[in-house]
Amino acid sequence: MWQRWLEQRFPDYTQKTVTDKKADEKNQQPKTEKSLNHRNTAIKFALDQTIGATINTILFIAGIDFLRGRSLGTATADCKEQFWPLVFAGLKLWPMVSIFNFTMVPVEYRTVVGSVVGLFWGIYLSLISSSG
User: Which residues pair with 31 in a beta bridge?
Assistant: First the structure.
């Protein structure tokens, strides 16, 4: 859902019409070329790495606490304590995944790519969480 919303608001590629004088003389349709929209890609990357990372990190920490039967107060304290270490750990992986996803992966497959990487990220986080 997040990927589709980002793509609708900030499309990856823009269509440019290429004018060809010979094509005009022959009454042919003008050619269009797709080019990566660097501005939109940067906006999506920034949103994903700020808002997306914040929401996912808080949901993970609180979700683990709730699954362990801990109180809201404990979950809030754990979010305050664990948020930045998890965000900094995520910065070693997720920026590369986001850039790859936004520039190389078609929109309809981005959720799959993010989910596969997220599966392994979740395993890593679970292992860290269980040791603490």
Answer: 18
What lies within 8 Å, CB to CB, of 95 at 6+ separation is 45, 49
With H, G, I as helix, E, B as strand and everything else as coil, classify residue 23: helix
pLDDT digits (tens, 9 = 90+) for 84-108: 999 999 999 999 999 999 999 998 9
Which amino acid does the sequence have at 93? L
User: Rounded distance, CA 124 to CA 26, Å?
Assistant: 60
Q: Name the 3-class secondary structure at 107.
A: helix
Tens of pLDDT along 11-25? Answer: 988 887 776 666 566
Distance CA 102, CA 66 (A): 33
Q: Please name the amino acid found at residue 43.
A: I
- The answer for residues whose C-beta is within 8 angstroms of residue 59's C-beta and 6 or more apart is none
59 and 83 in contact (C-beta within 8 Å)? no
| Average pLDDT of span 45-54 | 95
Residue 110: how many other CB atoms lie within 10 Å: 21
Beta strands in 1-125 (DSSP E): 13-18, 31-36
